[in-house]
């Protein structure tokens, strides 16, 4: 996206948001359509599970709808919606922490989780998205990140946000974001080096 | 420059947050330190792999998610717009409702009394024909005579007050009314009459 496109997109966002806040359901549906994939991808990277990612998308938009009156129009809509989605993901990760030792980085079996082994589940397997071995490796590497680095890394490389924007989303100072990006990047470098990606 | 500082500068570089002087400094260190040089290469590849891979992995939300979300949100907030106005101006709303209730009750009271009502002490002294109440010549009504929604024709004697509400009266030259004659037309007069009547009634009991 070049700068002009970004400005046009932002302007479009603002108009849709204004209409949706007034109760225009058509405008709200368009916002959902505009952001659903981004939120889904973000949640999928955070949680490595499509069912949970779906839940997050749904919950995120319900919260957006219910809390529209709290949205500050001076803020970018994307920042606000990413914040809601990221917080929901972080909550989920926190809740399941006893079962998943993310910090130990042992989650190497790709896509094996409670949902994936439910018999008769006809949904797409987790690996369907990951066409190449490199993609699978990156996915695993991100999955193994400790939660606090994961959110920063996903926002940085997936949503391509600036450090300042990540700070706005996660409500933390840029210096903290920076430290986390550095540590996360270092963590991933070692992972990928270990897997001989280079 | 030590390797720790170089590492920080490398990350700053990938954040796009490094001055020209720092970059030159870093380059100098990388040329002389092979360990840092390898680290830099690996970080560069990590950075590129991450951006490229994540951007090219097409992950999209499952079909039907939009309609599922739209089904879950509460239906039509539009209907509640008037409710919002009411919530914003409670005093105005209360005043408006009060006036409305008053108006309706007054109107209904007035409407209810649309038929002819005659109040008189001795009914055999008057003749009622349609909505005309006549005191014939030679008859004497003792006590007050009240006619509502009708026409009063006095040819004889009335030993008391004559009150005509929402109607008219005709007094012949032969008539004799010992009390006061009152005509009430307007709603306000009528209400006042009702109130004063209640009080006099109470006073006489």
TrEMBL record, chain A:
SUPFAM superfamilies registered for this protein in UniProt: Sigma2 domain of RNA polymerase sigma factors (SSF88946), Sigma3 and sigma4 domains of RNA polymerase sigma factors (SSF88659)
InterPro entries, per the entry: RNA_pol_sigma-70-like, RNA_pol_sigma-70_dom, RNA_pol_sigma-W_bacilli, RNA_pol_sigma70_ECF_CS, RNA_pol_sigma70_r2, RNA_pol_sigma70_r4_t2, RNA_pol_sigma_r2, RNA_pol_sigma_r3/r4-like
This protein's record includes keyword Transcription: yes
Family under the similarity heading: Belongs to the sigma-70 factor family. ECF subfamily.
Annotated organism of origin: Paenibacillus aceti
Any Pfam family matching the protein: Sigma70_r2
Signal peptide start and end residues: none
PANTHER family: RNA POLYMERASE ECF-TYPE SIGMA FACTO (PTHR43133), RNA POLYMERASE SIGMA FACTOR SIGV (PTHR43133:SF60)
Keyword terms, alphabetized: DNA-binding, Sigma factor, Transcription, Transcription regulation
This protein's name: RNA polymerase sigma factor
Domain RNA polymerase sigma factor 70 region 4 type span(s) in chain numbering: 137-188
Domain annotation RNA polymerase sigma-70 region: ranges: 31-97
Keyword Zinc-finger in annotation: no
